[in-house]
Amino acid sequence: MAETDFSDRQVQIINAAIKLIGEGGIQLLTTKNLAREVGVSEPALYRHFSNKVDLLRQVLTYLRSRIVQRLNEVAGSDLSPSEKLRELVIRQFTAFSNRPEVVVVLLSEGLYQNNNELSAFVFSIMQVSSSYYLKVIKDGQKTGEFRNDVTAERITFMIMGSMRFCVIQWHLSGFSYKLLPKGEELLDTFFTLLKS
Amino acid sequence: MAETDFSDRQVQIINAAIKLIGEGGIQLLTTKNLAREVGVSEPALYRHFSNKVDLLRQVLTYLRSRIVQRLNEVAGSDLSPSEKLRELVIRQFTAFSNRPEVVVVLLSEGLYQNNNELSAFVFSIMQVSSSYYLKVIKDGQKTGEFRNDVTAERITFMIMGSMRFCVIQWHLSGFSYKLLPKGEELLDTFFTLLKS
Amino acid sequence: MAETDFSDRQVQIINAAIKLIGEGGIQLLTTKNLAREVGVSEPALYRHFSNKVDLLRQVLTYLRSRIVQRLNEVAGSDLSPSEKLRELVIRQFTAFSNRPEVVVVLLSEGLYQNNNELSAFVFSIMQVSSSYYLKVIKDGQKTGEFRNDVTAERITFMIMGSMRFCVIQWHLSGFSYKLLPKGEELLDTFFTLLKS
Amino acid sequence: MAETDFSDRQVQIINAAIKLIGEGGIQLLTTKNLAREVGVSEPALYRHFSNKVDLLRQVLTYLRSRIVQRLNEVAGSDLSPSEKLRELVIRQFTAFSNRPEVVVVLLSEGLYQNNNELSAFVFSIMQVSSSYYLKVIKDGQKTGEFRNDVTAERITFMIMGSMRFCVIQWHLSGFSYKLLPKGEELLDTFFTLLKS
DNA sequence: CATGAATGAGGGTTCATTCAT
DNA sequence: GATGAATGAACCCTCATTCAT
Question: Which partners does chain B have (≥3 C-beta pairs < 8 Å)?
Fold first, then answer.
């Protein structure tokens, strides 16, 4: 897809931006800091992005493509719905563990508050993810693995909300503990509550 | 408590600050905007707050005291655990509906990312709220209203997470729909899932 | 003399001002700091001084009157010129030792640079002092105690310059050593060089 | 030495700063005034100096290097000690005559009072100068040109003090008379008093 | 005599961005 | 591609001073 066609420099800049935001929020993402991080001059950045919003757009585009790719890998597997749910959660949390900065970029919607486009972008990433979970829950309900007396939409909603809450707390703690065990706990709760 | 003793002007400034943050995030909370909003000069603000961080601290203090007050009202009532849970959710969502700006201040943790103290403050507000929900769930488990095979902590976690997610989506939508029905839906889901 | 008619409050403010200047130069002498130091509100200061320049004028007036008084005590004594010289130096240095802040006020002419009147005031204090030393040197030359082949004016000039230099170094050192021994050394040098 | 490697713009800014301080003390050295003087915008200054203290540091560095250069020229010459003393004084006073502003920067220690580093810097410039004079006096004592019954240190002290006093008076007078004749007078006095 | 509240002017500094080279 | 230099706009904050009470 064209949207994921980034030059090496662009990817380098995107990753530097993610790192900066991860370190101290969008306030740290200044052209000066970014240039220093990348090791080029400030004007040089403008060869690769037309302005700061464009940069953030590309950061989100970049992250979305990787998330979707991960979601597709799971969705395309021949696991059972329950196993897929587990896989989705574990993979997501593993990805965050490996790169906590991404949490800040993706889960701090407030950051883009004054820019509808970017907020909408973040929202869309959230909804794309949702749709995969929804599918899995629906499948699980069809197979009878998951209870049927609550709509798949509502179940998905609770799962997404819990996951986000989990990650946000981890973030607010300064990433001071391991995220994965929390994911296991969550899954445990999910399965208990969803048992039909 | 003395910490909630604000002068009229201070309350006025606090509310103006909340309004500004609500409108466009912390980026909009500049001394210039704030002064304009309050209708005084910039230096005048500094008679009432020693600096911007202090202002934010007081904003959070102010909001926390109102939240705790609301929580106490419910906790102190003689409702059943189920009814209390409903009351907590409805009141919280009603409060947000009446003043959507507060959502931005309280649920956009990222806003304070570069200030540990403020982040911790927001975190603490979250945890205070949590503790009230936890108590209610525990009570409900004792009375047998809520299922017992999942710990109260985990249930609370899911409830808080779902509520937050609900509010955040509402926020990202630009407060474009009514929040309260979503709360009712949530409660409906909770009660179905928690039935013992 | 009318110029030394200060109310108690005025003296209190003057001394607070001297203390502040002593601590960190004129930059520290803000109305806010001064009010805090005195223990009154900022506007209250304006009951006693019409503005900051007026305050500084009174500070200098106050200090000049005390300096002149000290000089007169020595000049009016029936000591020999040599003894008077010694007495002048020792008393001056003793006064500075007791109140190092005054050094900053009196010997940092640069502080008043942008105000001709105050600069002139400081200059006049310097010249008043000079005149007393000059008289003593002249007397000493008449009695033959001091050499005659250099004019009293030039000798006075060297004495004043050396003393100032001595005090300024003491100041730049952060008042980290005893000033009086340096005065003794100076006197020793003077007497050796001035011996006729 | 690398520390004296200033770009053209930096030198231009340094000189503008010296001019401003000369005109009205450090109070006149604002970024706004400086920018106007240099003919650039305020932010432009920050490409050449990281902040105001850094600017002052560089101003002092710049002046020190020129002073030391001048001192070395004299010290390295094959003049006699007496002639060297004369040369040191005359050159110093000539330099000040050509650029009276420098006097304000170098002899108004009070200006930097609230910044230990800068005060120490000024102090060090003073001491470097001192050391050259001391050497000359010592040499003169060895050759018998200067009297021996007062230590070279004390003599140097008196010379430095007198010179400073001379320059400060000139400054306080608003540079209203010629400095050089005063230097000649001073030298005359020195030679008379130091004759062995 | 004193204060709380306020203010115009101005302080140093950082921002995203542009432009000539 | 990349850079050094520059800038308008804006940032938070402090100053001496005034005024109603």
Answer: A
